Amino acid sequence: MSVIIAREKLLREIERSKLRKVIADTEYFASMDPLEALAIHLHDHMCKRDHNGWCNWNYEVKDHNVHDWGRETHKKWLNSCKPLHDNLLAQNISVDNYLQILLLTPIN
Fold this sequence. Notes:
Blueprint: H1 3-30, H2 34-46, E1 61-62, E2 66-67, H3 72-90, H4 95-104
Antiparallel strand pairs: 1-2
Helix pairs in contact: 1-4, 2-3
């Protein structure tokens, strides 16, 4: 097999893998409250704190990705997402559609 064919095969597999992750994330977010899904997504992509001690988000997640929305860090992210959530609703944009756009948009 030539190097070019092997490279193309690897790139196709990477793209399939990314697509599988997007589909899994979409299904995961669709199964929960839209405001909570928004908070999870925004935390995952916007939190700049060190997750080995300074951000308590991971300590507030129980087994099997059960989030404790009554804890301090989760409440903070939920409250900070509320204005965005309300703005989306006011513009007739569903949180599901918004998250699908975000999931398909590369974040550097």
